[in-house]
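Q: For a teaching handout, I want to show students what a protein-ligand complex looks like in token form. Below are the inputs, and the small molecule is 6-O-phosphono-alpha-D-glucopyranose. Please produce the holo structure.
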Amino acid sequence: MCGIVGYYGHREALPIIIKGLKRLEYRGYDSAGVALLGNKLEVFKTKGKVSDLENIIPQRMPQNVGMGHTRWATHGEPNDVNAHPHLSQSGNLAVIHNGIIENYGSLKEALIQNGHVFTSDTDSEVLIHLVEEIKNIEGCSLEEAVRLALNQVVGAYAIVILSRDEPSKLIAARKGSPLVVGFGEKGEYFLASDATPIVEYTRKVTYLDDGEMVFIKDGILTIKTIEDVEKSPYIQNLEISLDAIEKGGFEHFMLKEIFEQPKSILDSFRGRINSTTGAFMMRSLEEYEEKLRNIRRIVMLGCGTSWHAGLVGEYLFEELARIQVEVEYASEFRYRNPVISEDDLYIAISQSGETADTLAAMSLAKEHKATVFGICNVVGSSIPRMSDAGAYTHAGPEIGVASTKAFTSQVTVLSLLALALAKIRGTISNSQLKFYMAELENIPDKVEKTLKLDKQIIELSERFKDSKNFLYLGRGVNFPVALEGALKLKEISYIHAEGYPAAEMKHGPIALIDEQMPVVFIATRSPHYEKVISNIQEVKARKGIVIAIVTEGDAQVKKMADYIIEVPDTEEIFSPLLTTIPLQLLSYHIAVLRGCNVDQPRNLAKSVTVE
Ligand code: G6P
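A: Here is the structure, written as tokens, with 6-O-phosphono-alpha-D-glucopyranose included.
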């Protein structure tokens, strides 16, 4: 939610900021703005995308210090006025902000009484007025005023502040919203919501912790907490490559990421299993082996697609490790009064590692002393840092807003964990374990083969691009795949779609079926195959149009379905890794044919750092 970029150094700040904002546009694209600091403070901002912003800025701006913002609207509609940066009462100070200032209402009222006039509807504008008010009243430095203001603020923020009167200074801070600092050549610094805007300039970064502030003054950087304790930065080496964050010849990031899945799935298990011996090479598992042997139940936490991965995980853990599993929407869990025991294992699943609800749910579990295991894609993000143990998915940067390769990588890591737990708890034999490991090793090739369906799916998409509704049905471990298929379609093509357990159809959705309704069945080889066939017949009897994902060589479904998509055979527990692929492609091509902005669907953001 909202992307922020800052630059302080000797190069022209504007091109670095604009390029960085484009990389962060997946975080929001309702409006964009920059502030450039030299002899004066120049601000440009507009509703719309970064490309709209470029149209209103002179080509060359000489300033060497600046900041930029791409917004996902929370408080105040997406328009020019609510675009960031926001200025203080005097116009001397400017802020960009990612997050929500929850107590902005009461702060704003008090500031209005003291004569402040606000121009926008945002919570962020209140913050910069507050800083100026404190600076004037206390007569303190800007750094101190920012620190004191942040102590009054309730909520989440990543901010950058510039001052017209102090052109050699840049101040930034984070709490609840991510902020990375990159260390360039001597006295040169980059700031961004994630490392993608930084990677082409430097590999040396530090991820700020909650409650930390950065002061850059005359080329020297200091980190302090908002309690005024000085910290030395922990500098890490960035491991992402530039290629990984560019489209590499594909029309959209989403398509590139769909086609990357043979590799991303491989990277998720590579070096972690040995199918000859049945051994696992995962340090987090070794450290927690005793704990894992004795856990009472597993609770998975996630949002959106990550929650769907958790649902697949539920089937895997129950089937293989015979352990009780609950899968919770993090946003619901955090506001219930859940029963949390020290004997529970919480698995937090997140692509970005920054989802506010997932973080809050984890912290609730930790308050009750439960162990939290994180499954996350973005290295160094908040969720892995808050987890007791964890495993990265290693899918590489996912930029398309609709999650694709992150999902299959999450399912891969959950498969590893389920197998590992089964081994630790003795619920499967070593030969079964080795057999499953070997089959997992076959999956990347099978995904590669599944991707060859692309042409067939383009034809199918032509046929269904104008449909108003879609139903997705599956059973067992493919029920979550039905949910995920429906989510993908609605996210990027704006066609209404519902995912349902196939057998539940007769308790409601069957009423929707007529000759206009495409119904996507996941009907691959499984113990429920015959049952799914009955469900297909129920749809056909009501003149629904059946599109069936089946196992290669299937004979029965072929006879009754209108359209057949054949995926390679695999063990049922791994089938979501294959059945998901045609559904991703179907949504992608339908959305493209409808002229939708696939990588930046309306109203969505990739990283949801507000609750
Ligand atoms: C947003 C994204 C989804 C994602 C969800 C959870 O809604 O658009 O693609 O599944 O957040 O994000 P996370 O980063 O925690 O997996």
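A: Two things your students might notice: The first strand starts at residue 3 and ends at 8. The longest helix spans residues 430-451.
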